[in-house]
Amino acid sequence: MRTTTRSGRMCLVTGEAVIDVEQASAGRFSADPLAVFEEWDAFRSWAAKLEPTDAHGSTGPDGSVSPTPRQVFAIGLNYRGHAQEASLATPESPSVFTKFATALTGPDTQLRLPSGRVDWEAELVVVMGRRAEHVAAGDAWSYVAGLTAGQDYSEREVQSVGPVPQFSLGKSFPGFAPTGPVLVTPDEFADPDDLAIECLVNGESVQKSRTSSMIFPVAELIAGLSAVCPMLPGDLIFTGTPAGVGHARTPQRYLRPGDEVITRIEGIGQLRQTCVAA
């Protein structure tokens, strides 16, 4: 199953059709994506019986697949190549920070650059479909609503400010967390732990890897996070980025007005941001 949002409303994607959930269900399910995630199991059962002829509308996605999560988790240094390019040791446990929800946006947007030090980070994003608390890794995938593509755009100077660098503010400017174009349920993939991921800047492939190269795979992340705080339906996990970021290059490379960034994940689709001056 694939879902998306259109004008903030929950939609099913069936072939070329984008189906408004509230209209198609005659009000059984809300237009509010968060309310649908709260009833995810019932929603999936209903959606499995929906005929493509029940479509209401045909326009494409324009918003985040989960636009109003209560928590957005993000993981740093979750690929060995990225840790190595940052001259840091491979972490023994996940490095966790947050991206604030006001940074969320849709899959095809303008990215306003607040400075000349904005970097790209292609990421697989997990959306939760059930409340998860003290979940064992072996059970973790049953709590996942689906997977989507994301970008963890980062302003590197703000990220490093202070005697102890913190990541959250530098990664939470408006538009710094695009997701989409669709949310895909895990059963759609032959192996949801092994997907090709790539980032291109102006047509040049700057990041290319597979999610199987994560140091801490999705199930381990859910187990570790849920051991500390409950994870709620609609919550997001940005799972980390592979090697190839601009900040680690010699010379360093950052995004400029006019640049186009495309993020692709196998079986999900792509994001596109066009950079403009703030």
Automatic annotation (TrEMBL):
Entry-linked InterPro entries: FAH, Fumarylacetoacetase-like_C, Fumarylacetoacetase_C_sf
One of its Pfam families is FAA_hydrolase
GO terms for MF: hydrolase activity; isomerase activity; metal ion binding
Report the residue ranges that make up the Fumarylacetoacetase-like C-terminal domain in this protein: 72-274
- Is Cytoplasm there in the keyword field? no
Which Gene3D superfamilies does the protein's record reference?
A: Fumarylacetoacetase-like, C-terminal domain (3.90.850.10)
Q: Which UniProt keywords apply?
A: Hydrolase, Metal-binding
Q: Which domain of life is it from?
A: Bacteria
Q: Name one GO biological process term.
A: carboxylic acid metabolic process
Keyword Ribonucleoprotein on entry: no
Concerning its family, UniProt says: Belongs to the FAH family.
- PANTHER family the record matches: FUMARYLACETOACETATE HYDROLASE DOMAIN-CONTAINING PROTEIN 2A, FUMARYLACETOACETATE HYDROLASE DOMAIN-CONTAINING PROTEIN 2A-RELATED
| Protein name per the record | Fumarylacetoacetate hydrolase domain-containing protein 2
Q: Which organism is it from?
A: Streptomyces himastatinicus ATCC 53653
